[in-house]
Design goal:
Distance between the termini: 52 Å
CATH class of the domain at 7-123: Mainly Alpha
Radius of gyration: 23 Å
Order of helices and strands: HHHHHHHHHEHEHEEHEHH
CATH architecture of the domain at 7-123: Alpha Horseshoe
Strand order of the largest sheet: 1-3-4-2-5
Largest sheet: 5 strands, antiparallel
Shape: globular
Structural class: alpha+beta
Number of helices: 14
Helix content: 40-55%
Protein backbone atom coordinates (compact mmCIF):
# COMPACT_ATOMS: atom_id res chain seq x y z
CA UNK A 1 0.00 0.00 0.00
CA UNK A 2 1.27 3.48 -0.85
CA UNK A 3 2.22 5.75 2.02
CA UNK A 4 1.78 9.50 2.20
CA UNK A 5 4.85 11.57 1.36
CA UNK A 6 6.44 13.30 4.35
CA UNK A 7 8.27 16.63 4.14
CA UNK A 8 11.62 14.84 4.35
CA UNK A 9 10.68 12.46 1.55
CA UNK A 10 9.33 15.31 -0.57
CA UNK A 11 12.69 17.06 -0.24
CA UNK A 12 14.56 13.86 -1.12
CA UNK A 13 12.41 13.37 -4.23
CA UNK A 14 12.84 17.00 -5.23
CA UNK A 15 16.64 16.76 -4.94
CA UNK A 16 16.66 13.74 -7.26
CA UNK A 17 14.34 15.50 -9.72
CA UNK A 18 16.59 18.60 -9.75
CA UNK A 19 19.58 16.50 -10.84
CA UNK A 20 17.46 14.77 -13.47
CA UNK A 21 16.30 18.12 -14.91
CA UNK A 22 19.93 19.26 -15.04
CA UNK A 23 20.68 16.19 -17.23
CA UNK A 24 22.86 14.72 -14.46
CA UNK A 25 21.20 11.35 -14.84
CA UNK A 26 23.80 9.13 -13.23
CA UNK A 27 24.18 11.50 -10.30
CA UNK A 28 20.39 11.42 -9.89
CA UNK A 29 20.43 7.62 -9.86
CA UNK A 30 23.23 7.51 -7.29
CA UNK A 31 21.33 9.94 -5.04
CA UNK A 32 18.10 7.94 -5.45
CA UNK A 33 19.83 4.72 -4.34
CA UNK A 34 21.56 6.54 -1.48
CA UNK A 35 18.25 7.99 -0.26
CA UNK A 36 16.57 4.59 -0.51
CA UNK A 37 19.19 3.01 1.76
CA UNK A 38 18.88 5.91 4.16
CA UNK A 39 15.07 5.87 4.08
CA UNK A 40 13.56 2.48 2.98
CA UNK A 41 10.09 4.03 3.22
CA UNK A 42 10.72 5.59 -0.20
CA UNK A 43 10.05 2.14 -1.67
CA UNK A 44 6.41 2.60 -0.67
CA UNK A 45 6.01 5.77 -2.78
CA UNK A 46 4.87 5.38 -6.41
CA UNK A 47 6.37 8.75 -7.42
CA UNK A 48 9.82 7.52 -6.30
CA UNK A 49 9.69 4.44 -8.57
CA UNK A 50 8.31 6.50 -11.46
CA UNK A 51 11.18 8.98 -11.07
CA UNK A 52 13.82 6.21 -11.01
CA UNK A 53 12.09 4.69 -14.05
CA UNK A 54 12.40 7.99 -15.91
CA UNK A 55 16.10 8.17 -15.09
CA UNK A 56 16.69 4.61 -16.33
CA UNK A 57 14.57 5.31 -19.40
CA UNK A 58 16.74 8.33 -20.21
CA UNK A 59 19.89 6.24 -19.65
CA UNK A 60 18.48 3.72 -22.19
CA UNK A 61 18.20 0.95 -19.58
CA UNK A 62 14.75 0.07 -20.86
CA UNK A 63 14.30 -3.30 -19.12
CA UNK A 64 15.06 -1.78 -15.72
CA UNK A 65 12.82 1.22 -16.38
CA UNK A 66 9.89 -1.11 -17.12
CA UNK A 67 10.48 -2.83 -13.76
CA UNK A 68 10.54 0.56 -12.04
CA UNK A 69 7.25 1.65 -13.63
CA UNK A 70 5.70 -1.70 -12.71
CA UNK A 71 6.60 -1.04 -9.06
CA UNK A 72 5.00 2.40 -9.28
CA UNK A 73 1.81 0.88 -10.70
CA UNK A 74 1.65 -1.84 -8.03
CA UNK A 75 1.47 1.01 -5.50
CA UNK A 76 -0.91 3.12 -7.60
CA UNK A 77 -2.61 1.38 -10.53
CA UNK A 78 -4.25 4.67 -11.58
CA UNK A 79 -0.93 6.51 -12.00
CA UNK A 80 -1.44 7.76 -15.59
CA UNK A 81 2.08 9.17 -15.92
CA UNK A 82 3.64 5.80 -14.99
CA UNK A 83 1.51 4.03 -17.64
CA UNK A 84 2.64 6.63 -20.18
CA UNK A 85 6.31 6.33 -19.23
CA UNK A 86 6.17 2.54 -19.45
CA UNK A 87 4.69 3.01 -22.92
CA UNK A 88 7.71 5.11 -23.88
CA UNK A 89 10.06 2.35 -22.67
CA UNK A 90 8.20 -0.29 -24.68
CA UNK A 91 8.24 2.03 -27.72
CA UNK A 92 12.03 2.38 -27.54
CA UNK A 93 12.32 -1.41 -27.17
CA UNK A 94 10.25 -1.90 -30.33
CA UNK A 95 7.41 -3.57 -28.39
CA UNK A 96 4.72 -1.54 -30.11
CA UNK A 97 1.61 -3.46 -29.04
CA UNK A 98 2.59 -3.15 -25.36
CA UNK A 99 3.45 0.50 -25.94
CA UNK A 100 0.07 1.11 -27.62
CA UNK A 101 -1.83 -0.48 -24.71
CA UNK A 102 0.04 1.55 -22.09
CA UNK A 103 -0.59 4.84 -23.89
CA UNK A 104 -4.27 3.90 -24.19
CA UNK A 105 -4.45 3.16 -20.45
CA UNK A 106 -2.91 6.55 -19.67
CA UNK A 107 -5.49 8.31 -21.86
CA UNK A 108 -8.37 6.40 -20.29
CA UNK A 109 -7.17 7.37 -16.81
CA UNK A 110 -6.54 11.03 -17.65
CA UNK A 111 -8.62 12.33 -20.55
CA UNK A 112 -6.81 15.68 -20.81
CA UNK A 113 -3.33 14.08 -20.83
CA UNK A 114 -1.99 15.19 -24.23
CA UNK A 115 1.35 13.35 -24.28
CA UNK A 116 -0.04 9.79 -24.55
CA UNK A 117 -2.60 10.99 -27.10
CA UNK A 118 0.20 12.24 -29.37
CA UNK A 119 2.34 9.18 -28.57
CA UNK A 120 -0.37 6.71 -29.58
CA UNK A 121 -0.83 8.56 -32.88
CA UNK A 122 2.94 8.27 -33.39
CA UNK A 123 2.90 4.52 -32.63
CA UNK A 124 0.22 4.05 -35.30
CA UNK A 125 2.72 5.18 -37.98
CA UNK A 126 4.55 1.86 -37.39
CA UNK A 127 1.94 -0.43 -35.86
CA UNK A 128 -1.45 -1.68 -37.03
CA UNK A 129 -3.44 -2.60 -33.95
CA UNK A 130 -4.52 -6.24 -33.73
CA UNK A 131 -6.93 -5.30 -30.96
CA UNK A 132 -10.64 -4.78 -31.59
CA UNK A 133 -11.12 -1.20 -32.79
CA UNK A 134 -12.30 0.26 -29.51
CA UNK A 135 -10.39 3.54 -29.72
CA UNK A 136 -11.05 6.29 -32.24
CA UNK A 137 -7.36 6.67 -33.08
CA UNK A 138 -7.06 3.12 -34.45
CA UNK A 139 -10.37 3.34 -36.31
CA UNK A 140 -9.36 6.56 -38.06
CA UNK A 141 -5.84 5.25 -38.75
CA UNK A 142 -7.08 1.98 -40.27
CA UNK A 143 -9.55 3.79 -42.53
CA UNK A 144 -6.84 6.20 -43.74
CA UNK A 145 -4.56 3.25 -44.48
CA UNK A 146 -7.09 1.96 -47.00
CA UNK A 147 -6.90 5.11 -49.12
CA UNK A 148 -4.78 5.23 -52.26
CA UNK A 149 -2.85 8.20 -53.64
CA UNK A 150 -3.70 6.95 -57.13
CA UNK A 151 -0.66 8.50 -58.79
CA UNK A 152 1.27 7.50 -61.91
CA UNK A 153 4.93 8.47 -62.17
CA UNK A 154 4.61 9.00 -65.92
CA UNK A 155 2.10 11.83 -65.35
CA UNK A 156 2.06 15.17 -63.55
CA UNK A 157 0.55 15.04 -60.06
CA UNK A 158 -2.16 17.68 -60.23
CA UNK A 159 -2.92 20.14 -57.45
CA UNK A 160 -6.52 18.98 -57.49
CA UNK A 161 -5.48 15.38 -56.78
CA UNK A 162 -3.69 16.56 -53.62
CA UNK A 163 -6.64 18.74 -52.54
CA UNK A 164 -9.17 15.95 -53.09
CA UNK A 165 -7.01 13.52 -51.14
CA UNK A 166 -6.65 15.96 -48.23
CA UNK A 167 -10.40 16.51 -47.96
CA UNK A 168 -11.06 12.77 -48.23
CA UNK A 169 -8.71 12.24 -45.27
CA UNK A 170 -10.26 15.11 -43.36
CA UNK A 171 -13.77 13.73 -43.78
CA UNK A 172 -12.64 10.41 -42.26
CA UNK A 173 -10.66 11.88 -39.35
CA UNK A 174 -13.40 14.41 -38.47
CA UNK A 175 -15.77 11.55 -37.65
CA UNK A 176 -13.51 10.26 -34.90
CA UNK A 177 -11.30 13.13 -33.69
CA UNK A 178 -12.29 16.71 -32.90
CA UNK A 179 -8.87 18.07 -31.98
CA UNK A 180 -6.49 18.30 -34.96
CA UNK A 181 -3.59 19.69 -32.91
CA UNK A 182 -0.44 17.55 -32.95
CA UNK A 183 3.07 18.09 -31.57
CA UNK A 184 4.91 16.62 -34.58
CA UNK A 185 5.71 18.64 -37.69
CA UNK A 186 7.88 16.32 -39.81
CA UNK A 187 6.73 13.24 -41.72
CA UNK A 188 9.20 10.38 -41.89
CA UNK A 189 9.31 7.21 -43.90
CA UNK A 190 11.77 5.03 -42.00
CA UNK A 191 13.50 1.73 -42.39
CA UNK A 192 14.43 -0.02 -39.15
CA UNK A 193 17.73 1.81 -38.49
CA UNK A 194 18.02 4.30 -35.62
CA UNK A 195 20.22 7.18 -36.80
CA UNK A 196 20.47 8.30 -33.14
CA UNK A 197 20.60 11.97 -34.13
CA UNK A 198 19.75 13.09 -30.59
CA UNK A 199 23.02 11.62 -29.30
CA UNK A 200 25.06 13.11 -32.14
CA UNK A 201 23.62 16.59 -31.53
CA UNK A 202 24.63 16.33 -27.85
CA UNK A 203 28.23 15.65 -28.89
CA UNK A 204 28.25 18.65 -31.21
CA UNK A 205 26.47 21.03 -28.83
CA UNK A 206 28.70 20.21 -25.87
CA UNK A 207 32.08 20.00 -27.61
CA UNK A 208 31.62 21.64 -31.03
CA UNK A 209 32.98 18.47 -32.67
CA UNK A 210 31.26 16.26 -35.24
CA UNK A 211 30.56 12.61 -34.28
CA UNK A 212 32.15 9.86 -36.34
CA UNK A 213 28.79 8.46 -37.47
CA UNK A 214 27.92 11.77 -39.14
CA UNK A 215 30.87 11.51 -41.52
CA UNK A 216 28.97 8.69 -43.19
CA UNK A 217 25.58 10.46 -43.27
CA UNK A 218 24.66 11.94 -46.66
CA UNK A 219 21.44 13.54 -47.83
CA UNK A 220 19.62 14.29 -51.04
CA UNK A 221 17.90 17.63 -50.40
CA UNK A 222 14.80 18.59 -52.39
CA UNK A 223 13.54 22.19 -52.12
CA UNK A 224 9.95 23.03 -53.05
CA UNK A 225 7.95 26.20 -53.60
CA UNK A 226 4.63 25.44 -51.91
CA UNK A 227 2.85 23.25 -49.40
CA UNK A 228 1.02 21.56 -52.28
CA UNK A 229 4.37 20.54 -53.73
CA UNK A 230 5.49 19.25 -50.33
CA UNK A 231 2.46 16.95 -50.13
CA UNK A 232 3.14 15.73 -53.67
CA UNK A 233 6.68 14.86 -52.64
CA UNK A 234 5.30 12.85 -49.71
CA UNK A 235 3.20 10.86 -52.21
CA UNK A 236 6.34 10.15 -54.23
CA UNK A 237 8.34 9.16 -51.14
CA UNK A 238 5.62 6.65 -50.29
CA UNK A 239 5.01 5.21 -53.75
CA UNK A 240 8.50 5.11 -55.30
CA UNK A 241 9.50 1.61 -54.10
CA UNK A 242 13.16 2.16 -54.97
CA UNK A 243 13.36 4.50 -51.95
CA UNK A 244 12.10 1.96 -49.41
CA UNK A 245 15.65 1.13 -48.31
CA UNK A 246 16.32 4.75 -47.31
CA UNK A 247 14.96 7.00 -44.58
CA UNK A 248 12.97 9.92 -46.03
CA UNK A 249 11.62 13.08 -44.44
CA UNK A 250 9.26 15.88 -45.50
CA UNK A 251 9.21 19.07 -43.47
CA UNK A 252 8.92 22.85 -43.36
CA UNK A 253 12.04 24.80 -42.41
CA UNK A 254 10.25 27.59 -40.55
CA UNK A 255 13.44 29.57 -39.99
CA UNK A 256 13.99 29.89 -43.75
CA UNK A 257 10.30 29.43 -44.69
CA UNK A 258 11.25 26.62 -47.05
CA UNK A 259 9.51 23.35 -47.92
CA UNK A 260 12.00 20.48 -47.97
CA UNK A 261 12.39 16.77 -48.48
CA UNK A 262 15.38 14.67 -47.46
CA UNK A 263 16.59 11.21 -48.45
CA UNK A 264 19.25 9.79 -46.11
CA UNK A 265 22.12 7.73 -47.54
CA UNK A 266 25.24 6.10 -46.07
CA UNK A 267 27.84 6.92 -48.74
CA UNK A 268 28.82 9.44 -51.42
CA UNK A 269 28.13 6.87 -54.13
CA UNK A 270 24.61 6.17 -52.85
CA UNK A 271 23.63 9.82 -52.43
CA UNK A 272 24.76 10.64 -55.98
CA UNK A 273 22.95 7.60 -57.35
CA UNK A 274 19.70 8.40 -55.53
CA UNK A 275 19.81 12.01 -56.73
CA UNK A 276 20.14 10.75 -60.31
CA UNK A 277 17.26 8.28 -59.85
CA UNK A 278 14.83 10.72 -58.23
CA UNK A 279 15.39 13.58 -60.72
CA UNK A 280 13.42 12.11 -63.68
CA UNK A 281 10.57 11.16 -61.32
CA UNK A 282 10.35 14.73 -60.03
CA UNK A 283 10.62 16.13 -63.57
CA UNK A 284 7.60 14.05 -64.63
CA UNK A 285 5.55 14.66 -61.49
CA UNK A 286 5.87 18.45 -61.25
CA UNK A 287 5.11 21.15 -63.77
CA UNK A 288 8.30 23.02 -62.86
CA UNK A 289 11.98 22.44 -62.28
CA UNK A 290 12.68 21.15 -58.78
CA UNK A 291 15.91 22.02 -56.99
CA UNK A 292 17.88 18.90 -55.96
CA UNK A 293 21.21 19.07 -54.12
CA UNK A 294 23.38 16.66 -52.16
CA UNK A 295 25.24 17.30 -48.93
CA UNK A 296 26.74 15.60 -45.92
CA UNK A 297 25.27 15.73 -42.42
CA UNK A 298 23.47 18.51 -40.59
CA UNK A 299 23.65 22.14 -41.68
CA UNK A 300 24.83 23.41 -38.27
CA UNK A 301 27.95 21.21 -38.46
CA UNK A 302 29.15 23.22 -41.45
CA UNK A 303 29.21 26.53 -39.55
CA UNK A 304 32.46 25.81 -37.64
CA UNK A 305 33.60 23.32 -40.33
CA UNK A 306 32.74 24.75 -43.80
CA UNK A 307 34.42 21.85 -45.64
CA UNK A 308 32.39 19.21 -43.83
CA UNK A 309 29.13 19.24 -45.82
CA UNK A 310 30.66 19.66 -49.27
CA UNK A 311 30.63 16.56 -51.45
CA UNK A 312 33.78 16.85 -53.52
CA UNK A 313 33.76 16.23 -57.24
CA UNK A 314 36.29 14.19 -59.21
CA UNK A 315 36.98 11.98 -56.16
CA UNK A 316 38.78 14.76 -54.30
CA UNK A 317 39.39 13.98 -50.64
CA UNK A 318 36.63 15.14 -48.31
CA UNK A 319 37.04 16.33 -44.73
CA UNK A 320 37.81 13.31 -42.54
CA UNK A 321 36.94 12.50 -38.94
CA UNK A 322 39.47 13.67 -36.35
CA UNK A 323 40.15 10.60 -34.19
CA UNK A 324 40.98 12.86 -31.24
CA UNK A 325 37.29 13.76 -31.12
CA UNK A 326 36.44 10.21 -30.03
CA UNK A 327 37.19 11.15 -26.40
CA UNK A 328 34.34 13.68 -26.56
CA UNK A 329 31.96 10.98 -27.77
CA UNK A 330 33.02 8.72 -24.89
CA UNK A 331 32.23 11.49 -22.40
CA UNK A 332 28.73 11.93 -23.87
CA UNK A 333 28.13 8.18 -23.77
CA UNK A 334 29.31 8.03 -20.15
CA UNK A 335 26.85 10.80 -19.28
CA UNK A 336 23.88 9.43 -21.19
CA UNK A 337 24.10 5.62 -21.16
CA UNK A 338 24.06 3.42 -18.09
CA UNK A 339 26.75 1.08 -19.42
CA UNK A 340 28.78 3.99 -20.92
CA UNK A 341 28.26 2.72 -24.48
CA UNK A 342 26.05 4.21 -27.20
CA UNK A 343 22.74 2.36 -27.36
CA UNK A 344 20.19 2.61 -30.18
CA UNK A 345 16.44 2.24 -30.07
CA UNK A 346 14.80 -0.76 -31.69
CA UNK A 347 13.19 1.07 -34.60
CA UNK A 348 10.34 -0.30 -36.70
CA UNK A 349 9.70 0.26 -40.38
CA UNK A 350 7.01 2.82 -41.24
CA UNK A 351 3.66 1.56 -42.50
CA UNK A 352 3.00 2.22 -46.17
CA UNK A 353 0.31 4.75 -47.00
CA UNK A 354 -1.32 7.55 -45.04
CA UNK A 355 -1.58 7.39 -41.26
CA UNK A 356 -3.40 9.55 -38.74
CA UNK A 357 -0.07 11.16 -37.86
CA UNK A 358 0.51 12.02 -41.53
CA UNK A 359 -2.87 13.71 -41.88
CA UNK A 360 -2.50 15.79 -38.71
CA UNK A 361 0.96 16.94 -39.78
CA UNK A 362 -0.28 17.80 -43.28
CA UNK A 363 -3.11 19.77 -41.66
CA UNK A 364 -0.49 21.65 -39.60
CA UNK A 365 1.54 22.32 -42.75
CA UNK A 366 -1.46 23.85 -44.51
CA UNK A 367 -2.30 25.99 -41.46
CA UNK A 368 1.29 27.26 -41.32
CA UNK A 369 1.40 27.82 -45.09
CA UNK A 370 -1.67 30.06 -44.82
CA UNK A 371 0.07 32.11 -42.12
CA UNK A 372 3.03 32.87 -44.43
CA UNK A 373 0.75 33.66 -47.39
CA UNK A 374 1.60 30.61 -49.45
CA UNK A 375 -0.63 31.26 -52.48
CA UNK A 376 -1.14 27.55 -53.11
CA UNK A 377 -3.35 27.38 -49.99
CA UNK A 378 -5.96 29.50 -51.79
CA UNK A 379 -6.84 26.36 -53.71
CA UNK A 380 -8.06 24.71 -50.49
CA UNK A 381 -11.35 26.59 -50.63
CA UNK A 382 -14.05 24.30 -51.96
CA UNK A 383 -14.37 21.67 -49.27
CA UNK A 384 -16.87 19.00 -50.39
CA UNK A 385 -20.11 18.80 -48.45
CA UNK A 386 -19.88 16.26 -45.65
Amino acid sequence: MEKKISKVEAEQLNNIAVLYKKNLYKDALILANHNRKKNPALDSISFFHNLIGLINLTLKDWNQSVKDFEKALILNKNFAEAHFNMGLAYYDMGKLEKSFKKFLEAINLKKDFKKPRDAIIQVLTFYKSSLPEQDNFSVANNKLQKLSYNINFSNIISDQKVIDFYYKCKSIVSKYINDFSFSKSQIYRRNNIDLNCERHKKVFNQFNTIPKFCFGCFKVVIELESVLDLIKLLFIFDEFKFLDKFDRKCMIDKKLKLYKGYIYCSSVEKVKYIAEQIKPILDKSFEKKIKITTKRGCTEFAVPYPDYKEIKKNNKKMMAYNEEWSKNEKIIDQQNYKDNLEKRRNKQKSLKGTTLSDFLIIHNWITYAKSINDLSTQKFVNEPNK
